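Hi team,

Below is the intake form for Cytochrome-c peroxidase from Rheinheimera marina. Please confirm the fields before the structure is written into the shared record.

FORM ID: S-0412
PROTEIN: Cytochrome-c peroxidase
ORGANISM: Rheinheimera marina
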Amino acid sequence: MMLTFFAQLALAGQPLQLSGSCPPSFELTAQNQCKLVTRYDLYDSLQNKGVGGTQTSLPEARDGFTPQQIDLGRFLFFDPLLSANHQQACASCHQPALGFTDGKALSTGAHGDVGTRSAPSLWNVAYLKQLFWDGRTKTLEQQALIPLFAKHEMANTPEQVLAELMSNSQYPALFRQAFPDKEQLDLTQLATALTAFQSSLISLNSKYDQYAHGYHLALNDEEIKGMNVFRSFVARCSECHTPPLFTNQQIAVIGTPEPEGMPFDPGAGSEAGKEKWRGGFKVPSLRNIALTGPYMHSGRFATLEEAAEFYTKGRGHAVPKGEHLQLHWHIWEPKLSPEEIKQLAVFMNTLTDQSLLPAIPQTLPSGLPLPAELQTTNDNNKGIKP
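The structure came back. Fields below:
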């Protein structure tokens, strides 16, 4: 049997080497930093927030990480060593083939616990200013460690994850490659590496993007009709899902119903002093939305058509009795026809782009197997490298 790449290196006594190259769409600077470059850099935008027509700029993205930090983050993202039971990785809930979600209405934790919200997509997360459905954190570094130590998610502890990383035969040397100025491995480096990898997940070459950059044949007539509905003053989808990021990055109270039998989720309004945000959640980006169902914070709707239909059923129609929510003023009664709802779904399918999918490691530094849900066919793992 042919030995794996890592096994061959281990037998040869050679240390593993992290990549010295930036991911696609990034340029390597003289300071060994990966700088994001996109065609949207050529455009201007109102208040630099990506508000306007098709040729508007994106907000500022997180970049400037080294290739080694990004590659270390890639290994960590897929490695179940970070979970308490060594069976679940970050990628278990954020699977590349599913738009970096898990295809579930409610995500499942390391011990089988079912959560209360769906896993959000990580595509273009480098641009986001609020993380989690309730917007509770403002940086990826803050966000990165929370799932690791949440009892209903990866259920680990800071002490255990550090001990296992430091006692591993490969990871201490990999951390030294990624953080040569640090004497000892710590949680800050772990958070930075995960942030570096997640910031490299860029999806900006969909059929819509090709159309926006001037190739109008990229969209067919039905898709253009859907885009016109999306941008119309009647539907007003684009006022919250603002191109080109397809989110305005705000919290919105829209009155989404919970799945049958689930209690009302207060969302961003769960803390004292934030009552006006009760029932409010972050406006998600629609990039790769066709891959990330079911939809809404709790996976209430199975299809894009169902999600679009919710908005045309009347303002506040799904708000439970006894709840007095301050619904977003964009939520009203557009009275879209079934044909227009179908056209919206057709247009949202044009936002799919996975051309820059990262390579899933075949072998992990920990020596553990990939989580079961990631052990898929080669068709789903094109471009795999060690």
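SUMMARY LINE: The mean pLDDT is 91.

Thanks, M.
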